[in-house]
Amino acid sequence: MRHCAFGYDQRLEAFGERGMLAAANQLPTSVRFSGADHTEVAAPYHNFFLDRYTPAYRAELDHFVTSVETGSAPSPGFADGRAALVLADAAGESLRTGTAVKVVRPGD
């Protein structure tokens, strides 16, 4: 079992030749305090994934229901899921081998 003593920890950084993307942990508030004795006192991370992702799950379900009602294709779709799996497999292979793994986009 995985456990993070300070809450549900989720961070991501991705670097590429055109720049960087970063996603930090979501907190119950973005208010920070800085004073003479200390700085950056903030609430702990959300401790449970449903606390953090409820709005995203609700939006995902709403989109799916709308897709079913209108007969339109949901997004993300099958190809997006497959692309995520290709990336995850490449990351696993890179971890096992200690080498960079080239990921080729379909059609390239």
What are its keywords?
108 residues; alpha+beta; 2 domains; two-stranded antiparallel ribbon; 2 helices; extended
Can you describe what's shown?
- The protein is of the alpha+beta class.
- It has two domains: 12-75, no CATH class; 76-108, no CATH class.
- The protein has helices at 49-70, 78-97, and strands at 12-16, 19-23, 33-34, 39-41.
- The longest helix has 22 residues, at 49-70.
- The relative contact order is 0.09.
- The model has no long low-confidence stretch (mean pLDDT 83).
Number of strands: 4
Amount of beta strand: 5-15%
Number of helices: 2
Total discrete domains: 2
Question: What's the rounded overall pLDDT mean?
Answer: 83
Task: Please estimate the helix content.
Answer: 25-40%
Largest sheet: 2 strands, antiparallel
Radius of gyration: 19 Å
How are helices and strands ordered from N to C?
EEEEHH
Strand order within the widest beta sheet: 1-2
Specify the structural class. alpha+beta
What is the general shape? Answer: extended
Cα-to-Cα separation, first versus last residue: 39 Å
Given as residue ranges, the uncertain stretches (5+ residues, pLDDT < 50) are none
SSE map:
Elements: E1 12-16, E2 19-23, E3 33-34, E4 39-41, H1 49-70, H2 78-97
Antiparallel strand pairs: 1-2, 3-4
What would you say about this model in short?
This protein is α+β, with helices and mostly antiparallel strands and 108 residues long.
